Automatic annotation (TrEMBL):
<feature type="compositionally biased region" description="Basic and acidic residues">
    <location>
        <begin position="459"/>
        <end position="469"/>
    </location>
</feature>
<dbReference type="InterPro" id="IPR001128">
    <property type="entry name" value="Cyt_P450"/>
</dbReference>
<dbReference type="GO" id="GO:0046872">
    <property type="term" value="F:metal ion binding"/>
</dbReference>
<feature type="region of interest" description="Disordered">
    <location>
        <begin position="459"/>
        <end position="478"/>
    </location>
</feature>
<keyword id="KW-0349">Heme</keyword>
<feature type="binding site" description="axial binding residue">
    <location>
        <position position="425"/>
    </location>
    <ligand>
        <name>heme</name>
    </ligand>
</feature>
<keyword id="KW-0408">Iron</keyword>
<keyword id="KW-1133">Transmembrane helix</keyword>
<dbReference type="InterPro" id="IPR036396">
    <property type="entry name" value="Cyt_P450_sf"/>
</dbReference>
<keyword id="KW-0503">Monooxygenase</keyword>
<dbReference type="GO" id="GO:0016020">
    <property type="term" value="C:membrane"/>
</dbReference>
<dbReference type="InterPro" id="IPR002401">
    <property type="entry name" value="Cyt_P450_E_grp-I"/>
</dbReference>
<keyword id="KW-0560">Oxidoreductase</keyword>
<keyword id="KW-0812">Transmembrane</keyword>
<keyword id="KW-0479">Metal-binding</keyword>
<dbReference type="Pfam" id="PF00067">
    <property type="entry name" value="p450"/>
</dbReference>
<protein>
    <submittedName>
        <fullName>Cytochrome</fullName>
    </submittedName>
</protein>
Length: 478
């Protein structure tokens, strides 16, 4: 259905817009980056969304310039800045030239509270988005330290629940999603209710796919499904907010981001309306969901295919486990010792990036690599210009955690899974702890083999193994 609806609807869109499309010229003296805007209206969106990211970017770097090229994706004239120099330029000039930008499908899915009111959002709103999260320091080490034991016990509990002793063959991807969403619900909402969370998993998958999709709201399209899922999540979150407010009224402790959002007020003393809280929380949950679940899934795949890597991780984790009393949960010092395990996670993210890249909006015209980027254009940076490039990673196809050993570290700005500069991913530390807590628990309990090493991986923006990555488990009995 999806694929059939697509060419048809595109033909319709193109047809409608060709009638109204008038190219207008940019003033003559500025030298725009080389590249092509592709088709009227849809530009090169199809290639961007449905092609391999490395290929989309690589082909254009070869054809136009290794530094920068222009394209038109998701309705926006976009300059793609390439390579370590591009990353450095972007991350170093964050406040000066750029502000954050979410593609239109994302804005639409996460901004219900602005869609239905006539008033345009205040001009400062793009700054507040991340302030709400950064301010109380939820992602600061101290806050995460308090939460680490929970991460450890939830992961353990989920493994017990889904991979108990009777099962030999299990699927990794559904478990990774369940663990990840359970952690996020506990951290952001302070709820740990398996039935409720199971209901949400499917919706979050739909929303994540819809964030990078063609905004066509007719039945059968990815975007239509995402929209319905977002509505269902919103409804569930509004209930959670109501329950949380009742609990807070009776003096329940406030230990999660949701309680903070409920009490926080803007400079005029107004608190955030519930629908807005729901949308912001949905954005946070989405950001922390598929990226962590994807990394855990592919980590299991590569470690399952490389027994010698498994043994090294297990040795590292057992040494940490051995230093603890029975029933003691992970602590900050433990995680700092998981150096090899973290290298394995880094290598997983290099081969299967949890996020391909992000957009910025250009605040003032600037020049880079001899080309001018006009105000109002978008800039896109992507890990796919460096991650698989043999100039920066020898044998880039090979899964090799030893490449991050002391003295071997990748050159600056070649490896940026979390971005960099002031807009570096605020959830980086959270993701690191969540994945390490998973690694710790899984290698203590199991050894595993990947049943189909050549299982097809679907999706590029959000890669997932077609059959959920079935593995054969062997239990370690202490």
């Amino acid at each position: 259905m999806e694929l059939l609806a697509l060419p048809l609807s595109l033909a319709l869109i193109v047809f409608t817009f060709v009638l109204t499309f008038r190219p207008r010229s940019h003033r003559g003296d500025a030298k725009l980056p080389p590249g092509s805007f592709g088709w009227p209206i849809i530009g090169e969106t199809i290639g961007f969304l449905f092609g391999k990211p490395e290929k989309f970017v690589g082909d254009r770097m070869n054809k136009y310039s290794p530094d920068i090229f222009k394209t038109k994706i998701l309705g926006e004239k976009t300059a793609v800045i390439c390579g370590p120099n591009g990353h450095k330029f972007l991350f170093s000039n964050e406040q000066k030239y750029f502000t954050s930008f979410r593609p239109h499908p994302m804005q639409y899915l996460f901004r219900s509270y602005q869609n239905n009111r006539a008033a345009p959002p205040p001009p400062s709103s793009h700054k507040d988005e991340s302030k709400a999260i950064r301010q109380p320091g939820f992602f600061k080490p101290e806050a995460l330290m308090r939460y680490l034991g929970k991460m450890d016990s939830i992961t353990n509990q989920q493994l017990q629940m889904h991979w108990n002793d009777e099962k030999n063959t299990v699927k990794v991807h559904p478990l990774a999603k369940s663990i990840t969403l359970t952690l996020a619900c506990q951290f952001f909402l302070g709820i740990n209710n398996p039935e409720r969370i199971a209901r949400l998993v499917k919706h979050f998958d739909d929303v994540t796919l819809g964030m990078h999709s063609i905004m066509l709201n007719i039945p059968g399209t990815i975007f239509h499904r995402a929209n319905k899922a977002a509505a269902a999540i919103r409804k569930e979150l509004l209930n959670v907010i109501k329950e949380k407010k009742q609990a807070m009224a009776t003096g329940a402790p406030m230990q999660d981001i949701l309680s903070h959002m409920i009490v926080v007020t803007d400079p005029n003393g107004r608190s955030m309306p519930d629908p807005e809280i729901a949308d912001k929380i949905m954005g946070l949950l989405t950001a922390g969901y598929s990226t962590v679940a994807t990394t855990i899934t592919f980590l299991m795949k590569y470690v399952g295919l490389n027994p010698e890597i498994y043994e090294k991780i297990r040795a590292e984790q057992l040494e940490i486990a051995g230093s603890k009393k029975a029933g003691e949960l992970l602590e900050w010092e433990d995680v700092q010792k998981m150096k090899y395990s973290w290298n394995v996670i880094c290598e997983t993210m290099r081969l299967v990036p949890p996020l391909q890249g992000t957009f910025r909006e250009v605040l003032t015209e600037f020049t880079y690599a001899g080309y001018t980027i006009p105000k109002g254009w978008k800039v896109y940076w992507t890990v796919s210009t460096t991650n698989m490039n043999p100039a920066y990673f020898r044998n880039p196809e090979k899964f090799d955690p030893s490449r991050y050993d002391e003295g071997e570290a990748p050159a600056p700005y070649t490896y940026v899974p979390f971005g960099g500069g002031p807009r570096m991913c605020p959830g980086k530390e959270y993701a690191r702890l969540a994945i390490l807590a998973f690694v710790h628990n899984v290698v203590k309990k199991y050894k595993w083999e990947v049943i189909d090493p050549n299982e097809k991986v679907e999706g590029d923006m959000m890669p997932e193994p077609e059959k959920g990555l079935p593995i054969r488990l062997h239990h370690h009995h202490h």
